[in-house]
Write a structure and sequence with these properties.
Layout: E1 17-20, H1 31-46, E2 51-54, E3 70-72, H2 78-88, E4 92-94, H3 100-103, H4 106-111, H5 121-128, H6 130-139, E5 148-150, H7 154-164, E6 168-172, E7 182-184, H8 187-200, E8 206-210, E9 216-225, E10 228-240, E11 250-252, H9 259-275, E12 280-289, E13 292-299, H10 306-313, H11 317-326, E14 337-339, E15 348-350
Amino acid sequence: MTYCGQSNDVEPSPGAILVLGSGAYRIGSSVEFDWCAVSCIRTLDKLGYTSLMLNCNPETVSTDYDECQRLYFDEESLERVLDIYHYEQIFGVVVSVGGQIPNNLAMPLFRSNVNILGTSPEMIDNAENRYKFSRMLDKLKGVDQPQWKEATSIEEARKFCDVVGYPVLVRPSYVLSGMAMNVAYSHTDLQQMLTEASTVSANYPVVVSKFIAGAKEIEVDAVALDGEIIVAAMSEHIENAGVHSGDATLVLPAQDLSHETIQHVLDSSRKIIRSLKVTGPVNIQYLAKDDDVKVIECNLRASRSFPFVSKTVDLNFIEVATKAMVGMTSDFPTEQRIWAGGNHKRIGVKVAQFSFPRLSGADPGFHSNNNTTTF
């Protein structure tokens, strides 16, 4: 395409599908989302669709010119996506395989009448907006979450913390890699973290919730169709809750969870996925302590652990998700396939790699924001 010109160098591809990649993310951090984006366009090619990729990260495989039928190496912004969408006469856009950057474009694109494939952008907003998501969980019978409150002011947040006690988790909405998500242990911490969170997430709510120290963190990566799980895998973190999932050591299938905890997590996942009418990839995170299970958050997109999960269970979750999003479901399993606890032919362990020794003054500690550069 030629901007501000009289003609373009390429002809439109009516009916093509545009996949949004990981964008100009931190070097190394986008590798997991790049695997998801590449798996998506390769699946679309197998299904007979014309695949287009928008990405501007030279560190990625998705920006190789021969991976898709047309590559746009440009910024991942609303304006650029709309330019491509209208010129190419796109059939639909996939926002759920490139991480948080394309996911954040779901609602702006929806308001511009762009056809988003998979889960409805309104449901994506219900999950990403911390206030809306917490209110939804309150209405789901049998699904629990830590005590929470929308931080409308520092004073209101302090009153809430006086009631529930520290520590608390400060959670902004629509953020990358847990940015500005922190555990506060005092009023001083709370004020500093709320200021940072409100700056990062200025247009969306910031929620403060009770943080359960010493709890185990559990993740469910799944693919759903019209709110029903097709495939799902449950991983557990080796580290206690409070470490970002990108930094944590993951074990799949979970090896140290009771039968009660596993069933509670699966039941809660089914209820959340049905409530959000998910079609495509989804990641849900939980806290568990003494068989008491509470929801942390839900991402209606592929997570960093999708490549790890897919390789461990020998089933490409993104391939299944892509077929669900375009309605090609004829070869789907007739029953749910779930990898949770128990005996399986393979156990996978994901260990993150860090660049602390190479970065002068870097903080080598683990927090609720992401620090890893690769797996």
